[in-house]
Amino acid sequence: MTESTTLDIWNPGWPDPFRPTVDADDEYADLVDALREVQEAVTRSLPTPEAAAEAAATLREVARQMRSHEVDEDTQIAGKRWDIPGKAHALAPVLHIDTVTDTTATGRVTVGRFHSGRYAMNGGVTPLIFDELLARLANSAGRPWGRTAYLNVNFRALAPLHTELTVTAELVGQEGRKRFLRGAMYHGDILVADVDGLWVELKPEQTQNISKDLEGRDR
Ligand SMILES: CCCCC/C=C\C/C=C\C/C=C\C/C=C\CCCC(=O)SCCNC(=O)CCNC(=O)[C@H](O)C(C)(C)COP(=O)(O)OP(=O)(O)OC[C@H]1O[C@@H](n2cnc3c(N)ncnc32)[C@H](O)[C@@H]1OP(=O)(O)O
């Protein structure tokens, strides 16, 4: 094994982003945690053909079970649990939102190899994290719902895996329906990425499909 491949073999001392704190009796959140664990474990593995075939059959069986509980998008839980990091959506990195004021928000995120480019966070994942925190701020403090119009992300340094990163967001201006936000991601003192984003307040006819999604939103 080369030195580079040993760098990212699972280390029990790393923070574990795949098991966020949820109530033990919160079965749905636990299901999504389990799915995150599968995503990470599959990503990290090189199973034998037999083991791969066995795992594929097991996963297809789980998919079959879940299809028997299928609901429409208004009713699904994935992505709508505002009360837990990652909102119970297995693709989204588990972002812990610590503070949201009228004009600022902060959070923490740790990603593993599922979200890796190569030994660092994939460049498509960074905007997902910014979108989550900046959107939460853009739409907080009683502001009517707005939609992301742009997110201009600058990648300043590699974002390490298995390491807690801090994320900040700030509302820097408002002009009519437009809300301008800025955000940054840090590894310790190192600026990893920053972002400029625009949220545009929706017109009444644009909100028809989302009112149900907003139920349970804390702010
Ligand atoms: C994969 C991981 C997933 C994790 C998922 C987790 C959860 C998800 C699940 C459930 C979610 C739960 C709740 C969420 C509920 C709903 C919301 C989700 C929202 C999104 O996830 S969203 C996705 C990305 N988002 C889009 O899909 C936007 C597509 N787009 C549009 O919907 C329109 O485009 C819109 C509305 C943005 C504007 O359209 P409009 O017609 O209302 O606005 P209009 O033209 O009047 O412009 C007004 C003024 O904004 C300026 N302006 C507009 N756009 C600009 C731009 N790009 N650059 C510079 N300026 C711009 C104009 O220049 C004008 O400026 P001025 O007034 O000064 O002239």
TrEMBL record:
Read off the Pfam families from this record.
Answer: 4HBT
Q: State which Enzyme Commission number(s) the record gives.
A: 3.1.2.2
Main EC class the enzyme belongs to: hydrolase
The way this protein sits in the membrane is described as: Peripheral membrane protein
What is the protein's major site of localization? membrane
What is the annotated localization of this protein?
Cell projection, Ruffle membrane; Cytoplasm; Membrane
Looking at the record, the residues that make up the Thioesterase domain are: 121-189
Q: Could you tell me one molecular function GO term of this UniProt entry? A: hydrolase activity
Sorted UniProt keywords = Apoptosis, Cell membrane, Cell projection, Cytoplasm, Fatty acid metabolism, Hydrolase, Lipid metabolism, Membrane, Transit peptide
Catalytic reaction list: octanoyl-CoA + H2O = octanoate + CoA + H(+); (5Z,8Z,11Z,14Z)-eicosatetraenoyl-CoA + H2O = (5Z,8Z,11Z,14Z)-eicosatetraenoate + CoA + H(+); dodecanoyl-CoA + H2O = dodecanoate + CoA + H(+); hexadecanoyl-CoA + H2O = hexadecanoate + CoA + H(+)
Q: Which CDD domains match?
A: hot_dog (cd03440)
Question: Organism's domain of life?
Answer: Bacteria
Q: Which family does it belong to?
A: Belongs to the THEM4/THEM5 thioesterase family.
In Swiss-Prot or TrEMBL terms, this protein is called: Acyl-coenzyme A thioesterase THEM4
